[in-house]
């Protein structure tokens, strides 16, 4: 998962490098850019973007987390955005990538939930159904070359079963005990996997308090390392007793170490 | 052109509807069986997305399809093939024969000739005459029946191995003997397992888990399968062709 | 109906010489002949109760509900009806078929209107808005010779931004808001009973009992037919959703209703 939503869905240049030996195949273009120099129209690019979403299974359900930032390029534009959204009674979706596309997805899901409710047929949408629906929408849009520029995590709990899966702008899907989008795929995913895969009994042996601690640690590391992140975040917990999304919380961070670094603070040489 | 030098000249930056999700699949036909296998890792670039995403799918009691390439296209393609097979069942009250599934897949792939499903398909199973068969396809539908085929990220590692061990390429038979046209099941299974452990060692996109489907012709006994660790039957009936799956671990590094 | 046979009742686009549109009046007749529906707008919510006449013992009890859900926060019931193109086409069979189809069609239209409102304004519509839009739609079917008016009256209830609301849309397309509404065969008696209640002070829970009692009371005049009581409500107890009244509460209300009726006889 590339950290820069702007690079998502762009060619990988495999023609030069079939075995991917080049160090960073998706290195972003950081040279000065001339908006007119490229002389091309873009099919689409994300404008206001959210960064990583994290999720993991634990003993009683699913825990998800995302910060409250929506960036405009490198500008921290909106700092009170909710990127975790409950859908129906059993599911939460978390979104990275373009926030206006995410709002559109929310309205699609809202219409879907209302339609299912008005049927009054005793069937309720669970996380599996919502993930399948989103997969079809995302894949359908990429096939029309008009993608919804997001990477989404779908977490839920229904009929005694945990569910956690991913879908993105290409329609790519997968499921695992721990998932992370964006920069989190590089920074948080290894930490999450160490906590879950490295534990005897795996996710089934992970209590909620510990999951929350791991999640917070991951978010803290992300805040230290991801320039498009924020120290204000929300978590969602989905268990047999339903969906709960926390109020925004602040991350405890420490910057005292920076004083000893050359070129920072008082010491300039 | 140096790929790092992208800032030097104008470039077209447009949405690319494809990606490549790694992994490898392979299939080998025997006289009265067919073996179809794939690893379960799904990756993009250097990221492992998941350690378990199946690439091999049971279509009918005598057909198994392995799909490799762009995972989203692969999943959609399998979904559509399964749908067509179900419609066939509703219309004709029987499962589609293997050779017909092969032609169906070619038609479906070619139907998207100008916006292809970016997937390599290998279809394995039992023909109407009871013989084991493997069909391999390119993304736009060219296909042929073969004895064995590897595809995907480690195709270039596995196929030469199979050429040598199954087609006996570059091997002289001992004087007065001939190379066998088909190998027995236990031998085939160990070749499959060795192929994947080898590919796992040498290719970063291969690993995590291995799923081996074994399709047996009608009436064939289970010899060569019994006692296999992780063996599970997935056929819908026991008096026709039978399908088994063997699940094994591969290295996760 | 002294004007029958004069030719002024063949089309919804023709007035009679004394300024009436017979097709619309026939549609009203269709409504008048169907099972009773009442709606109660009370202090904290709305309750809708239906006398669902069972025309065949072969029907599965509890299936074939007459109350439909339009939106997350809104329940809709339409009454009944025989639709008549002309008087002699009327028969029980056609009646129930016509009723079901008309009702579903209008419910779907109401769902579309609610959905459009949400898509356009990102907020749920008020019930008045929906009643108005559905009213316009129904009214359009009173204008043309090529169509027949809908043979239904629609009772809609909701809690919207202004609190509990209850409207009835008639086959002519007019709609009125009510504290207590009744349509169908037993509407006169039902209205009399509703008028005795202090609806503005009543809780939805109390209203359940009253609604059941009224439906059972008006059914006394129609006793040869079997019926199922159908009730849905929205209020403080339903978390903002229009849902069927829970079984235990409904059973209790039906028990009291039967007692009350037997009490009247003694």
UniProtKB/TrEMBL annotation, chain A:
GO BP: proteolysis involved in protein catabolic process
Keywords: Cytoplasm, Nucleus, Proteasome
Gene Ontology CC: cytoplasm; nucleus; proteasome core complex, beta-subunit complex
Keyword RNA-binding: no
Main location: cytoplasm
InterPro entries: Ntn_hydrolases_N, Proteasome_beta4, Proteasome_bsu_CS, Proteasome_sua/b, Proteasome_suB-type
Keyword tRNA processing set for record: no
Subcellular localization(s) per the UniProt record: Cytoplasm; Nucleus
Xref: Pfam families: Proteasome (PF00227)
Purpose of the protein: Non-catalytic component of the proteasome.
Family per record: Belongs to the peptidase T1B family.
Protein name: Proteasome subunit beta
Automatic annotation (TrEMBL), chain B:
Localization per record: Cytoplasm; Nucleus
MF-aspect GO terms: hydrolase activity
Gene Ontology biological process: proteolysis involved in protein catabolic process
Main location group: cytoplasm
Pfam families tied to this protein: Proteasome
GO (cellular component) term, any one: nucleus
InterPro entries in the record: Ntn_hydrolases_N, Proteasome_bsu_CS, Proteasome_sua/b, Proteasome_suB-type
Keyword Hydrolase: yes
Alphabetical UniProt keywords: Cytoplasm, Hydrolase, Nucleus, Proteasome
Domain of life: Eukaryota
Similarity comment: family membership: Belongs to the peptidase T1B family.
Protein's job: Component of the proteasome, a multicatalytic proteinase complex which is characterized by its ability to cleave peptides with Arg, Phe, Tyr, Leu, and Glu adjacent to the leaving group at neutral or slightly basic pH. The proteasome has an ATP-dependent proteolytic activity.
Subunit structure: Component of the proteasome complex. The 26S proteasome consists of a 20S proteasome core and two 19S regulatory subunits. The 20S proteasome core is composed of 28 subunits that are arranged in four stacked rings, resulting in a barrel-shaped structure. The two end rings are each formed by seven alpha subunits, and the two central rings are each formed by seven beta subunits. The catalytic chamber with the active sites is on the inside of the barrel.
Protein name per Swiss-Prot or TrEMBL: Proteasome subunit beta
Species, as recorded: Heliocybe sulcata
Automatic annotation (TrEMBL), chain C:
Subcellular location, record wording: Cytoplasm; Nucleus
A GO cellular component entry from the record: proteasome core complex, alpha-subunit complex
Domain Proteasome alpha-type subunits: 8-30
GO biological process: ubiquitin-dependent protein catabolic process
Keywords: Cytoplasm, Hydrolase, Nucleus, Proteasome
InterPro entries from the UniProt entry: Ntn_hydrolases_N (IPR029055), Proteasome_alpha (IPR050115), Proteasome_alpha-type (IPR023332), Proteasome_asu_N (IPR000426), Proteasome_sua/b (IPR001353)
Pfam families: Proteasome (PF00227), Proteasome_A_N (PF10584)
UniProt similarity note: Belongs to the peptidase T1A family.
Assembly and oligomerization: The 26S proteasome consists of a 20S proteasome core and two 19S regulatory subunits.
Function comment: The proteasome is a multicatalytic proteinase complex which is characterized by its ability to cleave peptides with Arg, Phe, Tyr, Leu, and Glu adjacent to the leaving group at neutral or slightly basic pH. The proteasome has an ATP-dependent proteolytic activity.
Protein name: Proteasome subunit alpha type
